[in-house]
Design goal:
By secondary structure, the chain is of the alpha/beta class. It folds into three domains: 107 residues, Alpha-helical ferredoxin (Fumarate Reductase Iron-sulfur Protein, Chain B, domain 2, Orthogonal Bundle), CATH 1.10.1060.10; 157 residues, FAD/NAD(P)-binding domain, CATH 3.50.50.60; 142 residues, FAD/NAD(P)-binding domain. The protein is built from 18 helices and 17 strands. Helix 6 runs antiparallel to helix 9. The longest helix is centred in the C-terminal third of the chain and has 18 residues. The protein starts with a helix and ends in a 7-residue tail after the last helix. The relative contact order is 0.13.
Length: 436
């Protein structure tokens, strides 16, 4: 098996000719609904017009000034439910302008130049701590650096990047792009990254409060929800997010354990990502089992189609009730068919389905890791940090953003925006002048 072909880029990028043809389909709306639909409010008509005029640098600056991770978001953003769904051509023709591919074209071409257009602002003598080097933390750090702060990022892992580096499927993030983007972001200057720094172990929140003018928490969600069914402890029952990380960091895919019969429990993008990856790695039968219908799946219609065209079966209206095995290893999973009751609640209907399964992946949502939540000292509800409209936690001077907070969808683009907004809120709280 040629793994470089198996995990090749899932979307063929545009060249200049294709980009210009597609750009010329845009109506360049004055009151563009696509801008409203973008969490980072990129001026989409402006950057697309610049592509049509071969002003690629200008297009990239439109994107990166609003979204410093515009390159990753062009690859991983669910554009079919955001900007492209709002596109006027989608409403009239069911064929929206390919905004995501155009955004990728502009940012990729710009990164090839090696230019660093962002610089650290005049130093104001204040230092900020950022916990977590994922999309929210990096976005916050970058914005604060441009405002003249010295930033120290405390990252638990060996490499920065968070979900972009460890959690996105390799066919979405090819050619080491995640680290190239991190290098670009850190190139602004004034940002130090301390890897292997774990909150609650070798750093504490009280210590950070004492040594820094403000703290931003962008931990993401490292804990996984349990199935709470008999047999969950058997070998072969795995956390989907952690296995995706293992795939992303693997130097030799041939060393990965790949079952013949695989069942993925869940209906979001993580479920789709692990299902497709295991199929690409050689699994013979891969089934996604979801407790509700296709319309309720967290994975977009595009992602669902992607799974199905890659040979993944999606079984809806089923929930796990038991995992059976021998010698401590999973061999099959028993699922109960579900139904929606008049009161709106879901329940089993007493009919069952049993599937062979030597690997079962849990992809039913994530929460803050227990160690992190115990060491935070901020208000947490339903497994997420509570923040106000300024993204400040219950502890003054401590801000948070990204998947770990209870605002917005758990998307990279949302995390980037929250990191940026938190940076502006920190700047305002510390007496800085607003410059957006």
């Amino acid at each position: 098996m040629k793994y470089d072909e198996v995990f090749c880029d899932i979307n063929k990028p545009f060249d200049l000719k294709n980009a210009q043809v597609e750009a010329n389909r845009c109506y360049y709306c004055y009151d563009a609904p696509c801008i409203e639909a973008c969490p980072t409010a990129i001026d989409i008509p402006s950057f697309i017009r610049k592509i049509s005029n071969e002003n690629i640098r200008g297009a990239a600056m439109d994107i990166l000034s609003a979204n410093i991770m515009g390159g990753t978001c062009a690859r991983a953003c669910p554009v079919e439910t955001l900007c492209q769904q709002a596109c006027v051509r989608e409403k009239s023709e069911k064929q929206p302008v390919a905004i995501g591919l155009l955004q990728r074209f502009a940012t990729d071409q710009f990164f090839k130049t090696g230019e660093q257009p962002f610089k650290q602002g005049p130093l104001n003598g204040k230092k900020i701590a950022v916990v977590g080097a994922g999309p929210a933390g990096l976005s916050c750090a970058h914005k604060l650096a441009t405002l003249g702060y010295q930033i120290t990022i405390f990252e638990a892992r060996e490499k920065p990047g968070g979900l972009n580096e460890y959690g996105l499927a390799p066919y979405k993030m090819t050619d080491g792009f995640a680290q190239k983007e991190v290098d670009f972001i850190l190139g602004v200057g004034g940002i130090e990254v301390r890897n292997n720094s774990i909150l609650g172990k070798n750093i504490s929140l009280s210590e950070l409060q004492k040594n820094f003018a403000a703290v931003f928490i962008g931990l993401g969600l490292g804990g996984v929800n349990a199935l709470n069914v008999p047999g969950e402890e058997l070998s072969g029952v795995l956390d989907a997010a952690k296995y995706i990380e293992k795939i992303r960091q693997s130097r030799s895919f041939s060393d990965l354990a790949v079952g013949r019969h695989i069942v993925v429990i869940g209906g979001g993008n993580t479920a789709v990502d692990i299902a497709i990856q295991m199929k690409k790695l050689g699994a013979e039968f891969v089934t996604i089992a979801y407790r509700r219908g296709f319309a309720q799946m967290g994975a977009t219609h595009h992602e669902q189609e992607l799974a199905q065209t890659n040979g993944v079966l999606i079984q809806t209206w089923v929930q796990p009730v038991q995992i059976n095995g021998q010698a401590g290893k999973a061999q099959e999973i028993k699922l109960e068919y579900t139904q929606l009751n008049p009161d709106g609640k879901l329940s089993g209907n007493g009919q069952f389905l049993t599937l062979k399964a030597d690997q079962i992946f849990k992809a039913i949502g994530q929460t803050l890791e227990k160690e992190s939540s115990l060491s935070l000292g901020v208000k947490i509800s339903d497994g997420k940090i509570q923040v106000n409209q300024d993204l400040e936690t219950s502890v003054p001077g401590i801000f948070a953003g990204g998947d770990c907070i209870a605002l917005g969808e758990d998307l990279t683009v949302t995390s980037v925006q929250q990191g940026k907004l938190a940076a502006l809120a920190i700047h305002k709280k510390l007496g800085g002048k607003s410059n957006g």
